[in-house]
Amino acid sequence: MPDVRLASPQGKWILLTTVLGSSMALLDSTVVNVALPRIGRDLDAELAALQWTVNAYMLTLAGLILLGGSLGDRYGRRKVFVVGVVWFAAASLLCGLAPNAGVLVAARALQGVGGALLTPGSLALIQASFHPDDRGRAVGLWSGFGGIGAAVGPFVGGWLVDGPGWRWVFLLNVPLALLCAPIAVRHVPESADGRADHGRFDVLGAVLGALALALVTYALIEARSGSLVVVVTALAGVAAGVAFVAVEKRRPDPMMPLGIFASRQFTAVNLVTLCVYAAFGGFFFLAALQLQVVVGWSALQAGTALLPTTALMLLFSARSGALADRIGPRIPLTVGPLLCAAGMLLMLRVGPGASYPADVLPALLVLGTGMVTLVAPLTATVLGSVDASRAGLASGINNAAARAAGLIAVAALPLVAGMGEEAYRSPGAFDDAFGRAMTVCAGVLVVGSAVAFATVRSLPPGCRRPECRTHGAVMAPPLEGERTRGRLS
């Protein structure tokens, strides 16, 4: 049984290590969007390259995050966490030194691999190290401090872009890793799950899942060309997705056991997740561009402008979860997406000469209120809709689904909105496409609300409740449970 107390020196070192590690990944999930216009200008990149700068990271992270947890269980959580931190830092260094867009995209994909190793590992280290009496408080501090890191990410990113340059958005990870990795080696106890020694890793499932996402993403981003290659790629992506389902159905130890979807509530809440996080992914990708390209703000102003959404999450997510415990998840999961849709429609007022107090802030406050309303109940419903022994797996699948939804949205939304390759260099063209994109995002959120209203029911008494009560990340729901891992045991 883990016996480290939170108040002990070792407990504080463990908490610091895990916060540093998870903050690296959280920062990169929010800060890069602010840097995109400057990256595009400096590297003379088209819009597709900017989409890939975001999506290459999300692709490998979403595709491998379940497998990353499994590697930690088998080979040692501290070992895999440290490998992830070092890997992430090395890839970040490559991003910061990238001479062109192609190298940057490849380095971002490598960053996602590191993120898939360290993201589940940071929570697993807390759960494997702290005494049960202290674990809940440690998880709360970890998620709270991590949320603060996510909140300051756009601000720090904007400051770096306007100051020393966008490359420092990535280079900042190197000193964080140099601090984090030695502390982990010295102060964090090693742990592993003996049950993870049985069975094989579902490498084929992970490869097919990531390949399906990659091919579909490529087809969506390059669809403007209308070439035969795009059609073939799209069909290959669908085929890879079908093969993924077939492999997961037949394997004795699958990465994503399809039987877990026998729970109608679990399936329904994941459909809601796909709608909600697709809209969020599209919004945060385009909003930072809109504020800089169309409104004319600096990167620092644009990054600071987006802070209210994360701040509201940090301040009120725990209270939202408590309210959902009393009234059930159906109302919050119905009302929350509608509020987010209203916030995105209010963004239609954000154009040339927009005022922050009159135009931008009201939209972000409504959007943030909707996010607060839905995120905590969504996590609770995911955990409560499956057996307690599968809670960690369910959370991992839900987290991966959210990231995949954001990935597809960033690929598809510019296409659906009629955004050309040079649109981000033309304020007028981008503003028109942004308006259409926000309308599409609002529509997707309305669909998510309708799905929640029609399918989500009250949770059974005594079901598993979230440990991450405070949550500040806006691109994916929090990971939960002892076993966010790549196979079911």
UniProtKB/TrEMBL annotation:
InterPro entries: EmrB-like, MFS, MFS_dom, MFS_trans_sf. It comes from Streptomyces sviceus (strain ATCC 29083 / DSM 924 / JCM 4929 / NBRC 13980 / NCIMB 11184 / NRRL 5439 / UC 5370). Residues 14-460 form the Major facilitator superfamily (MFS) profile domain. The keyword DNA-binding does not apply. It is found in: Cell membrane. One of its GO terms (biological process) is response to antibiotic. GO terms for molecular function: transmembrane transporter activity. It is a multi-pass membrane protein. The chain crosses the membrane at residues 12-36, 48-68, 80-99, 105-126, 138-160, 166-189, 201-221, 227-247, 268-289, 295-318, 330-348, 360-384, 396-417, 437-456. This is Transmembrane efflux protein. GO terms for cellular component: plasma membrane. Its main location: membrane.
